[in-house]
Amino acid sequence: MTRTFKNDDVLNLLEELDLNNQKSILEESSNNFAKVDKKFFNEKQIVSPDEMKNIEKELTPQKKYKQNKAKRKVEMQQKFGEELIYFGNSLVARNSAEYKSKRLINKNSVQICREKQKIQKIERERQIEELSRENIQLEKEQTNLNREILKMADEIISKGLEIPKEIESVIFALKNNSSAISFNK
User: Fold this and answer.
1) Is Transferase one of the keywords UniProt gives this record (predicted)?
2) H/E segment holding residue 90
3) Full-model pTM
4) Which terminus of the chain has fewer Cβ atoms in its 10 Å neighbourhood, N or C?
5) How much of the chain is in helix, strand and coil states, percent to nearest 5?
């Protein structure tokens, strides 16, 4: 005598068998895992399989993220029937107006960034020129002041007056540097 089963009955039996099988496998693996752990670690450091899964998740979030991203892309392509690409964090159809506008915006922002860099470079060069002109002007003024100090010192000496020792050392330094003064004319 044969017994006939409905599809639902068969599925229920398979699920029960599968669940029982999974439970026994899980219990066996956790027991084996604990035994191995006891060999290498003391009892306080035993890690359960659930904790190991959590540790794996913490160690590989980027990998999972990439896998989920790829799955999502495939699902969306199948759903819409178009080639999709990631643009930033969003999926966009390659031929869509949204993609074209985002791409144009991206190109424009790159172009704007380059223009800003050119402007900044020109401004820096202009500032350098300005500073060098100011530096040259200050050097000329310093040279003229040094000449005047030397002339005054010569006049004081020619009149027979004494020059204070502090000023004498400055005049001596200026006279030794007179070649630099004549060079900067």
Assistant:
1) no
2) strand 90-93
3) 0.36
4) N
5) 80, 5, 15
